[in-house]
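Usage example:
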Amino acid sequence: MANWVPLWLHRLGSPPVFYRFAGAVRPWALGLALVLGAVALYGGLFVAPADYQQGDAYRIIFIHVPSAWMSLFIYGAMAVAAFIGLVWRIKIAETVAMESAPVGAAFTFITLVTGSLWGKPMWGTWWTWDARLTSELVLLFIYLGVIGLYHSFEDRRQGARAASFLVLVGAVNVPIVHFSVNWWNTLHQGSTVRLLGPSHIEASMLWPLLTMMAATKLYYIASLFARARADLVASESGKGWVRDLLAGRTGNDPA
Amino acid sequence: MRPGSTSAACAALLRRDLTLAWRRRGDIALPVLYAVIVATLFPFALGPDPALLSRIAGGVVFVTVLLAILLSLDQLFRADIEDGSMEQLMLAPQPLALLVAMKILAHWITAALPLIVVAPLLAGMLRLPPEAMPVLVAALLLATPLLSLMGAVLVALTAGTRRSGMLLALMLLPLCVPVVIFAAGAVAAAQEGLPWIAPIAWLGAGLALALVLAPLACAAALRIAMDT
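Running the assembly step on the lines above writes:
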């Protein structure tokens, strides 16, 4: 009975199967992400009360905090995919790892920009060399390095393998950077909004935050699948299934 | 034909790299010259105020040394890849990680050691107090091998690409953040008369870790980048 799970995963490793699976999942994920995002924005911007100290300015956390979570979550997902791709040489895993990087970089960038927008009225400055800000900036550099390394190879698979290796080196390095930066400058550590735990936040502020978290996760899946489909078509352009696809022939299931 | 012992192969490779570097002595002087130029520019840009210069001296020397090493890292494997010796090293019966470690050691001796020699001079020009000077040299002795080892992994990853200079800087920056923090932190602590042993110990721990892991990672990265 449990046999179909490994069998299905095994079949998913084949590019045409993954292409069709991603194509079927993507609209649902995107639609659900948009609906949940709209609900969360409504809850965050209209339903949740204003903060007694920060007024309405705190409402940016409904974008900022989910983006910050995603910037780390996507790195974790990318590292797992890179490890699988390097060890078992599964092409889909390499594609997933490489196409995660731009999405992760975008979320990291959004985190930094929204943090700056919030910091300007709250701290009086849009940038400070605080530990959390600095590690987030370093994370952005790692993402950019991965993207740059991937695109500097002429052979896509070779580039993907080299960049996957860099992802793993970065995964070892990220905790070290985090702790050394904390040690270097722990100013503002307690006052950053990201430290808000579930126990310290009002329920009417918590549910839009969690809904937005689900929305960003679904958006990541939708974006990743769209990018992976485009990448598969480009890298497999010589294969029969892509030619059938472009010619509009659905054909029989080749997998 | 029986292959030579591993230690003999390592010694031969080290001797070869050092001889090659010695034949082109002018290239060894370039990173040092670069460091001197960069360090000289800081007083021009910031003004010759001794109080300000002595406060930033430690950090300026570390960043300058880092940039000079970054400049020389690009050449680490390039000549060997272009003339095909790297393929021979990969095919050698000896473990590639050890052979690569010898190449990194040769690079450290030729590129980083002259920088460590000249660093106290630069720090003195920038008015670093004499009591902080031994800490500066100790931190450099621990930090430069760490930079060479981590840089070698990244250089190996870019071995198969055409343009690597800017990319290397982008990839090395996140890796060298802790090194700069601890090394400059030790010097700053010594300047203020605080205990400086903790950051030095962190650097030593990082070096011990990198000495074991970096040659293995570098060998794996070379195999990926050369696609063998």
